[in-house]
Specification:
mainly alpha, 2 domains, 2 strands, two-stranded antiparallel ribbon
Length: 192
């Protein structure tokens, strides 16, 4: 604020106060726009197509669902028995190495998180994220479909709503990862 002394009294120049506040407001707006544009460049705002949003959304949904599936499998002792070939006894150890009846192994879940982060990037790193999530979606859908727990979940005699919903979300989100991954891969390939 600017004060002027006139005859012993202090007067405040309201015009100067208004202008100085206006300058502060304009500089704050410009700073906010610069920060938004930097953030948009970091996230690749022009690369955030609907297909990428769908891929990331269903990948995150799949990651959460499979993490819940891992916890449920460990607590309720559901070992991986893919196609009748695996017969795990120690579910916690199987989760760390190969997976459980309701989720892949820990290393695949961590890899999926890394691929989600990579998919936001431009260039080759982003393409690796998109292709990796697409392939991971295909493999997790096949893995879930090969588990005998599906028959148990959807059987009228042993019907469990929680198990059915978890298996359905796992399969649906995996398949949607494949669909949106292929669409995003095609759009990125055409852009280059």
């Amino acid at each position: 604020m600017i004060a002027r002394r006139a005859g012993g009294n202090i007067e405040i120049d309201h015009v100067s106060v208004f202008l100085s506040r206006g300058k502060k407001l304009i500089s704050a707006i410009l700073l906010l726009r610069i920060q938004r544009s930097r953030r948009a460049d970091l996230l690749g705002k022009d690369m955030m197509s609907k297909t990428l949003k769908g891929l990331v959304l269903f990948s995150a949904c799949n990651l959460v669902s499979m993490s819940i599936g891992a916890i449920l499998s460990i607590v309720l002792h559901y070992p991986a028995r893919f196609g009748g070939l695996l017969s795990g006894n120690d579910v916690l150890q199987d989760f760390l190495l190969i997976g459980t009846a309701l989720s892949p192994g820990l290393w695949l879940l961590l890899g999926q998180f890394v691929l989600i982060v990579c998919a936001f990037r431009r260039g080759r790193v982003g393409m690796v994220g998109v292709i990796g999530l697409t392939l991971l979606g295909a493999f997790t859908a096949l893995g879930q479909l090969g588990e005998p727990i599906i028959v148990r979940a959807f059987s009228p005699a042993t019907f469990d709503g929680t198990l059915v919903s978890l298996v359905a979300v796992n399969i649906a989100s995996s398949l949607l990862m494949v669909v949106f991954g292929i669409l995003e891969w095609r759009s990125r390939r055409q852009a280059n």
